[in-house]
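Class prep. Protein, please:
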Amino acid sequence: MSHPDHYLLAGVMGWPVMHSRSPKLHNYWLARHGLIGAYVPLAIKEAGLEKALRALPALGFAGCNLTIPHKEQAMKIVDHLDPVAKRIGAMNCVIVGADGSLSGTNNDGFGYIASIREAKPDWRADAGPVTVLGAGGAARAVLVSLIDEGAKDIRLTNRTAARADDLAKEFGGPIKTIAWNDRHDALQGAAMVINTTSQGMVGQPDLDLKLDLLPQTALVSDIVYIPLETPLLSAARQRGNTTVNGLGMLLHQARPAFNAWFGVMPEVTSELRKMIEATI
C-alpha cells in the first residue's frame, strides 16, 4: 500500500517528548506495511500547543498523539471531541480531517482492554469484582473501559478518598469506593486487581498491597511498564496469579490511531514487543 502523491506524516506532541516509544512503534508499522512516511517526536511547550495543532493540516500531517502535559488542554482546541474522550476527560489522539478540521479521541481504554484480552482471551469484565487502585487520569480511562465492557462490581480505592468519591459520583453505576486503609480487604473474592497508580514505577515507592486474600484465579494488572515486572506483578506471579504489565496498553492504544491516520489497522507482533522491551 503506497501513497506516491504525498509523504505520510504523524507524530507525538509533548514536553518533554524524546523519551517516547511511540516513534519506534509507529515507524515499525509504517515499514511493515510498506508505507512511505514518518512518525516524529514534536517537542511542544504548553504555550505553543494551539499553534502547533493548527499547523498540522498545512504541514501535511494526518494527525498526532498527545502526551504530558497536553492531554487536557487540547480538548479545548480541537474542532470535534468524541464521547469517549469527553467521559475520560482527556485526549491522546488528534486526527486531521480532509477539510483540515481537528478531531480528538482517547484510545487508552481501547488499549487497556486489548492488552488484557491479548493475555487472557476469555477475559470478561463481569466475571466478578474488580478492584481498582488509583483515581488519576489513567484510572479514568480504565474505569470507562471497564464500565463499557459490562463490569458489574468495581471497588475503587485511592490514597485521597475524595478523588475516588468524585469518580464514583461522576461515573456511577458499578463503582463503590473503599477506604485506602481497607485496600487489602478489598481483594477478597476479586476476579481482577488493577493498579493505575505510579507506585511500583522506577523511581517511585512500591505499592503496599497484601495479596493474602486475593484468589489465585484472579488476574493482576499493572499499567506501569517501567519496569516490565513491578513488585506487585512479581508477588502475584509467584503466588500463581496471571499477570499483565502496562506495555500492552501502550502498544495497543496506538493501533486505532495508526488506522485513523493511514487506513491500516496494525497488529502487535512478538517482534514489535521485543523491540520496545529492548528500550526499557
Summary: The chain has a mean pLDDT of 96. The longest helix spans residues 247-262.
